[in-house]
Amino acid sequence: MDGFTIRVATAEDEAALSDICVRTADRGKDASDHYSDYQYPGLIWALPYLRFCRDTCLVLTRHGKVVGYAVGTPDTLQFEATLKNSWWPELRQRFGQRAALSPGDRYVLDYFHEPEVAPNDIATRFPAHLHINLLPDAQGKGMGRELLEALLCSLKRSGATGVHLGVNHLNEPVTEFYRKVGFAEIARLPSIIMAMDLCAMGTEIVHRCDPK
Fold first, then answer.
1. Cis amide bond preceding 41, omega within 30
2. N or C, which end of the chain is more exposed by having fewer CB within 10 Å?
3. Is 10 helix (H, G, I), strand (E, B) or coil?
């Protein structure tokens, strides 16, 4: 795979996940200049999974360097409850005196106090959810699909029967990537919500999940 490897993330990958998250936070493009602290986006969209869902937190490496990640949880409602009790209070205390120096900062600091939650009907029908990001040098080589399918298998093995994800409505072309794997649009909030029945995954993905 041209030096690419997929593995379960470790605590030592925290800085890499934060870096990749901010460098892909602007609809897949670098958003480093949107935040005064490069860690901010990862504290919402990456690091909670590393802390609480390590088994369903995967990284893509190339010659040993982390160049992408796919993180998720098999149970969105339980995950949100865990963050409510054990993650957001920690961040409110840690960053409570921080001043927002940009609109991006303000969004993140406000999010620590009022985090978004998945609509109950979606989280009940499709209990798992995920995020995936790759640095530009890792894109266009088929590794995004490899990484996504590996995470879907991990979520399925963890007991999830369905999975959903959100796509920025300003970045609609990326939905085609998910459709090719088997996702379908189910709502616009205005984020485009796509979902997939893990019990009906394509045979090629099932083979990856349970090779025999």
1. no
2. C
3. coil
The pair of three-digit structure tokens given for residue 87, joined into one six-digit string? 């993650």
Identify whether the C-beta of residue 55 lies closer than 8 Å to the C-beta of residue 128. Answer: no
Identity of residue 126: F
**Count of C-beta atoms within a 10 Å radius of residue 122:** 19
**Amino acid identity, residue 117?**
V
> Which residues are 128's β-sheet partners?
163
- CB distance 32 to 22 below 8 Å: yes
Q: Which of 7, 11, 31 is nearest to 21 (CA)?
A: 31
Query: 102 φ, ψ to 5°?
Result: -160, 165
Q: Which residue has the higher pLDDT, 82 or 202?
A: 82
- 């005196």: which residue's tokens? 97
Give the N- to C-terminal CA distance of the chain in Å, as an integer. 22
pLDDT in tens, 17-51: 999 999 999 989 999 999 999 999 999 999 999 99
The 10s digit of each residue's pLDDT in 50-89 is 999 999 999 999 999 999 999 999 999 999 999 999 999 9
Q: Are 123 and 107 in contact (CB under 8 A)?
A: no
- CA-closest candidate to residue 91, choices 46, 151, 40: 40
CB 8 within 8 A of CB 57: yes
